[in-house]
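Tokens in:
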């Protein structure tokens, strides 16, 4: 998570300039990081996919060695038409789906927050 001290004015609301992200940590039963061949976050209502490895390739290449994968960022706050939205994180190894986890995310005009969902996933 990035913290900055600047702020901006948006519709009479003062927002911090921090960029909020949430990650999932994928490990095996011995706590070793699991490296996924592919993964994405899907907006459950619209079907829209976000493939963070395509957006943040360098960061993804470093994070996945620790079993860490971006789940959602402030960039998807627009998905919250009613103040919240549901997403599904899917992960694949050798083209086989090994993870399908649901999450509930809330958002205001500034930032997202993870309301419900497992951020520590064990893959057998």
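Residues out:
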């Amino acid at each position: 998570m990035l913290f900055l001290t600047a702020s901006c004015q948006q519709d009479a609301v003062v927002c911090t300039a921090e960029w909020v992200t949430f990650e999932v940590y994928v490990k095996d039963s011995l706590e070793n990081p699991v490296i996924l061949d592919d993964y994405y976050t899907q907006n459950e209502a619209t079907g829209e996919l976000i493939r963070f490895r395509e957006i943040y390739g360098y960061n993804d290449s470093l994070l996945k060695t620790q079993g860490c994968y971006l789940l959602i960022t402030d960039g998807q706050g627009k998905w919250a038409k009613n103040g919240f939205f549901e997403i599904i994180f899917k992960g694949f190894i050798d083209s086989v789906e090994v993870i399908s986890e649901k999450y509930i995310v809330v958002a205001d005009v500034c930032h997202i927050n993870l309301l419900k969902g497992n951020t520590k996933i064990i893959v057998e």
